[in-house]
Design brief:
This protein is mainly β. The chain contains four helices and 28 strands. The N and C termini lie far apart (66 Å).
């Protein structure tokens, strides 16, 4: 076949392919359905005279493709059939009888909405967003470090909490929680209490009588697994003997004993699922939260046990399950962050009023590059030399994911198993400290 014939054949094939692409595009467009957004106002704003939405934003994510599209109006939204996660923010203006105008921010979040020819309605039940006047989680280091052999090292995980307000906060009684449910496995739990409670399997509280642990604006507390200099056991780790608190467990397993640091005070353990010792989930498939529990330990443990049922469906069949855990009322929670990875993410295990997104380390399950990394809350600006951190109750936006842990930066320790020293210093894993 001569070159001229080959060129003609190639041109014909190319035109045919473009024609097919155009037809597929036309089909996709014709399959798009007008989405109907049904917005329910918060109960305390419902029916309020003079209340109107002045601006609104819809962030719609196609669960299958991962594509996120933002709209600034509920009109003219067309979606192809499929599953969608929808996040909503709006400003409500309230005009009183004297013409004075006040504003409130409202939010909503819903997951797994199916758009089809039979149903293209998206129901969004909103709530008023009020920034917390308490501590926030500024960092979760759950991945851990690696030994020079490349093996996982345990015990140097930590969480940092931050005073993002303009006044002194007292950490006495602040409680650290880890979720029972995971963000990678979604089941139909019955009864479903997520609208009003957070299901947990670890509860550790900062001791104190109320004013023993003051924290100034722009200051933080470091809460860790084991408050020792981990470089003694693993030269690629760092020193946590200066931490503010550690969670310590009296293990019932003689071969799995916890270490009680002589330099770091212990948290008050209210409950933990394990009979040995507690570690943060090192792939980050859970949510972590801070709470103020207004009752004592004995009353809480006697009144807030949650028993639930669900089914595991596999190829071999459907298996009914019954379990129990403790639950924390959502109104006691002052901050929460969901974590996961995109390849495994299924849902958030908190109500949307607590968190509408998730942070991550690594891109897939068992990602070997995740070690030495953490999720760190973004800095907005400096005030009097102290960071003001972002807090919109959307961890996807509020956190820098998959960044070098702050203690590694501060101590200049290893960022990989070969022992390469960290040379950067940042406020939030991204913004350099000049």
């Amino acid at each position: 076949m001569n070159k001229k014939i080959i060129s003609i054949v190639f041109l014909c094939l190319t035109l045919a392919l473009f024609s097919c692409d155009d037809k597929l595009s036309d089909v996709a467009t014709s399959m798009s359905l007008p989405a109907h957004l049904n917005i329910t106002m918060p109960t305390d704003l419902e029916g309020v005279a003079g209340a109107k939405i002045s601006e609104e934003t819809f962030e719609i994510k196609n669960v299958t493709t991962g594509r996120v599209t933002t709209y600034n109006s509920r009109n003219g939204i067309n979606l192809a059939p499929g599953l969608y996660d929808v996040s909503y923010e709006a400003v409500v203006e309230i005009t009183d009888d004297n013409g004075n105008v006040t504003t409130k921010n409202i939010q909503a979040f819903t997951q797994g909405v199916e758009i089809s020819a039979e149903n293209s309605t998206i129901n969004l039940v909103t709530f008023v967003y009020v920034p917390t006047d308490d501590f926030i989680i500024s960092e979760v280091f759950f991945t851990g470090t690696l030994r020079p052999t490349g093996n996982q090292y345990y015990g140097d995980d930590y969480i940092k909490i931050y005073n993002n307000t303009d006044h002194v906060l007292y950490a006495d009684g602040l409680t650290l929680l880890e979720s029972k449910f995971t963000t990678t496995q979604k089941y139909n739990y019955r009864p479903n209490v997520m609208a009003n409670s957070f299901t947990v399997h670890a509860i550790y509280t900062i001791p104190g009588s109320g004013t023993d642990y003051p924290v100034q604006p722009g200051e933080e507390l470091l809460i860790c697994d084991t408050g020792i200099d981990h470089r003694v056991a693993n030269e690629n780790s760092f020193d946590l003997s200066h931490a503010d608190f550690e969670w310590y467990d009296v293990s019932t397993s003689p071969t799995n004993l916890d270490i009680d640091s002589p330099t770091v005070p212990n948290l008050d353990k209210w409950y933990c699922y394990t009979l040995s010792f507690f570690l943060l989930h090192n792939r980050g498939f859970r949510a972590w939260a801070l709470a103020r529990i207004p009752i004592d330990k004995e009353q809480y443990l006697s009144q807030y046990l949650y028993r639930y049922n669900y089914e595991i469906v596999v190829e071999a069949g459907t298996y009914p399950m019954s379990q129990q855990a403790y639950k924390i009322p959502n109104e006691w929670i002052v901050d929460a962050v969901n974590c996961s990875v995109a390849a495994e993410y299924a849902w958030n295990v908190t109500h949307s009023s607590l968190d509408r997104g998730y942070a991550y380390c690594g891109t897939m399950d068992h990602d070997k590059t995740r070690y030495f990394h953490s999720v760190r809350r973004k800095m907005l600006y400096l005030k009097d030399g102290k960071p003001v951190l972002k807090d919109t109750n959307n961890s996807s936006d509020d956190f820098n994911s998959y960044v070098i842990a702050s203690e590694i930066e501060r101590q200049g320790t290893a960022i990989d198993y070969q022992g390469s020293a960290c040379t950067q210093r940042t406020w939030d894993g991204v913004t350099p400290i000049n």
